[in-house]
Specification:
The chain is α/β, with parallel strands linked by helices. The chain has a single domain, classed as Dihydrofolate Reductase, subunit A. Helix content is 18%, strand content 26%. An 8-stranded mixed sheet has the order 4-3-2-5-1-6-8-7. The protein is globular and about 40 Å long. The C terminus is likely disordered.
Length: 188
């Protein structure tokens, strides 16, 4: 099992548009139907792990976004309307234990913002960080992280060009866990 985060960001480092939408939604190539590698990414995944803020909008979606994945949510409370098969826990370590106990060998898609990704990175659970760098400048939104240093433990693995000029950059996260991107939440 590998825990893999994949997110898009603008060339100026924003993972959301100025109005809060995920960066990928502003890319004309993605909007016109290009997958930007997400389909291939999900082929080996059996579970989705995310924070409550990322999870809650799915409860009002017309279709369940993770029909073939086990879903694990880091949150202080179980949101109203959460399906019974979704595991929710407020402790990141305990949630990882639950996820590992039911894993059948497939990968885990870590979905979320900088705080959620930073939490699991700080625990040493994040295996890869995959960024889709969009050829756009947003000038505002949420940054991936305020700053990264060599101590973040990211090791460049590979890159590839995607439709519309986007570039996928993959990092291994097996080094130090000290600086991506914020202090862990929900540790015991």
């Amino acid at each position: 099992m590998q825990i893999r985060a994949r997110m898009s960001m603008s060339a100026d480092g924003y993972v959301t548009t100025p109005n809060g939408w995920p960066a990928l939604t502003a890319d004309p190539a993605f909007v016109s139907g290009q997958s930007h590698g997400i389909r291939e990414f999900l082929e080996g995944c059996e579970a989705a792990l995310m924070g409550r803020t990322t999870f809650e909008p799915a409860l009002t979606n017309n279709r369940w976004p993770w029909p073939d994945l086990d879903v694990f949510v880091l949150g202080s409370k179980r949101p109203d309307g959460t399906p019974d098969h979704v595991t929710v826990d407020n402790d990141a370590v305990r949630l990882l234990e639950k996820l590992r106990s039911v894993n059948r060998g497939g990968d885990v898609h870590l979905i979320g913002g900088p705080q959620t990704i930073g939490t699991f990175h700080a625990l040493g659970a994040l295996d890869t960080l995959e960024l889709v760098l969009l050829p756009q400048l947003f000038g505002g939104g949420m940054h991936l992280t305020p700053a990264l240093s060599p101590d973040a433990g990211l090791t460049f693995e590979r890159e590839r060009v995607l439709p519309g000029g986007s570039v996928e950059i993959v990092y291994s996260c097996r080094g130090s866990r000290s600086e991506l991107p914020s202090k862990p939440v929900g540790q015991r």
